[in-house]
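Lab notebook, bench 4. We co-purified these components, and the gel suggests they stay together. Before we commit to crystallization screens, I want a quick structural picture of the whole thing.
Request: model the full complex, all chains together.
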Amino acid sequence: MEEIKNSLDTKELVLSMGPQHPSTHGVLRLVLELDGETIKKCTPYVGYLHRGIEKLSETMTYHSTIPLTDRMDYISSMSNNVGYCVAVEKLFGIEAPERAKYIRTIVSEMTRISSHIIWVATHALDIGAMTVFLYSFREREWLLDLFEELCGARLTVSYPRIGGVRNDVSQHFLDSLYKFTEEFDSRMDEYETLIDKNRIWLKRTKGIGVISAEEAINWGLSGATLRGSGVDYDIRKRFPYDAYDKVDFIVPLGEKGDVYDRYRCRMIELRQANRIIKQCIEQMPKGPIMAPDAPKFTLPAKDRVLSDMESLIHHFVLITKGQMAAPEGEIYVATEVPKGELGFYIVSDGSGRPYRMRVRAPSFVHASVLPRLSVGHMLADVIANIGTIDIVLGECDR
Amino acid sequence: MKIFEFIMSEGFFDMFLDIVIIIIKIAVVVGVAMLHVMYATWAERKSIGRMQVRMGPMEVGFHGLLQPIADGVKLFFKEDIIPANADKPVFYVSPVIIMMSTLVSLSVIPFFDGFVVANINIGLLFILAMSSIGAYGIVLAGWSSNSKYPFLGGLRASAQVISYEVAMGLSLVGVMIMAGSLNLQDIVKAQAAYPTGMYVVPQIIAFFVFVVSALAETNRTPFDMPEAENELVAGYFTEYSGIRFALFFLGEYVGMIVMACMAVVCFLGGWTLPPFIVKIVPFVESVPFIGLFIFLAKLYVCIFFYYWIRATVPRYRYDQVMALGWKLLIPLALLNILITGVIKILA
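Here is the predicted assembly.
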């Protein structure tokens, strides 16, 4: 056999997929070696969207890094903000007040919904079901309008602050959000009617990109990509932050670890996120939205800056020099963002700026598993696999 | 002298008149078909838009009615880019092959009683042959672009079109057995004589096979493998631009209309209404050009079905398409031939 193969002098077709390609979700580049349509080798290349966010943050105060985190995973920017603020608060040893925690939980879950429906939209579009794509954008539009009402921005929100949130939520916002949560389940039914039991969808997703629980852990997968393989690990349950220990939700798990299981996991997560928002609105406590007892770390309210001497001084120092009272040390805090485990590792030398900040981006880790999922499958399955690991290249390259 | 006599003779005049009439018929058919193609794109965007909770084209003209014209003008004035390493003569000719093969198929389709450009005895075979030639256009376009995505698209298309041609041909055998003819006009007339007025009732299996293979033949969702934009960017016409791209696009839509016409002629009774409807409303027979309107109504239903499918289902994978064709459709078509043949012999 070997001799015949050599005498024919066949070689694999090398196909460079991306960085400009309709379904590599941004600027991912895959170099594929194809035998017919079967993938023999797959090498992902990342870095086309590198902006040096980690290095930039070393030159900025803790507060001014918040807008940078928006630009990482730009379709779930609120979760990044919350993750960063939770990490910095832990470093400073301060805690946000109850109401702020609830608000953050709400906005995190709103982001989870808007991120996951983008995911189901693009994933379905990649597999060819284009109607789901447009249905999902209807709901995303609704959520973005709510974000706009909350903080004035739709995409790069920069809403949470170290020690709380920027401004309080209005009753009107909570009412409209509650209306959304009541409507959303029926919208979910619409997506599921289109693809959940569709024979073609099942054929394209079942048994594709299978990864066992053990392997998934070894590859460092997280989020729904990990839970699709049946590993019960959700940071919101294991290491609760914000108000996640006060709400009731289930963590969906897959069995086989294929594209379909991960799809089901995310679909159930969508409904659960909706439930969490609903509970948070119902339980929403009254009170301050900024940690009141940490003037050296949290920005004072704007109206007090202009009337109160002490607040003016704190405000001036915090804006120009940063949190000078920051304790020395290092900390790693991970939060459950829509893509997976987003970790911030911050080293502080006691100045107002982080000495080093390292971001553990789930997209980066997930992009590395693509060859493992794709080799041996066909070209069309690569597209399904890119969709199923749910990556955003802004976060991957940072 | 003899030539002069021949020119003046009765026979020559008749021939000349025949040619003029055929040219007029061709002009009418091509004109009407191109108008339908233009507005098929508009109708597709509108109806799929409605299915996807959006408006579709709205800007150019009332409800975007002039959009197809704007698109045509835009494509016509775009730069015609030819890749440096392309096989130029083949690259030039392949969109023409596609356009030509689909347009020629229209010539044998009877739009209403007595109106057909070329009334030939092998109309059905002619259409099948032309759709095979269309596959050359796709394969050559993919090959001559000298680029990897079009190449893969061309390979997929050749495999797919060849496989589904078999299924489609076999599905039409049942119709041929029942009508006893390959002439499309005779097939329609045979259907009109049949109690249900349509072959879709006795040939339901064949109709199913035909519809699925027609979707595959015209590269429509869920079988749009050769041009799967999420995998192969734009498939075999990735490197084409401007008016050459438009030719592919038009060819594809004409192909879609041809396949819908085939479905109407072979399974849905062509320009005739089923006898029981005629019995209820006998005056329809006397309306002028009623045949054409009935034909068009049936055609629009078929084309709408294409749009509906496109908005609903995801895309098959390449090997799954092959498996469906060879393992399901062809055995079904063969079974249908067997059943039809046995009934024909017994009856």
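The mean pLDDT of chain B is 83. Worth comparing against the SEC data before the next meeting. The CA atoms of residues 24 and 329 of chain B lie 40 Å apart.
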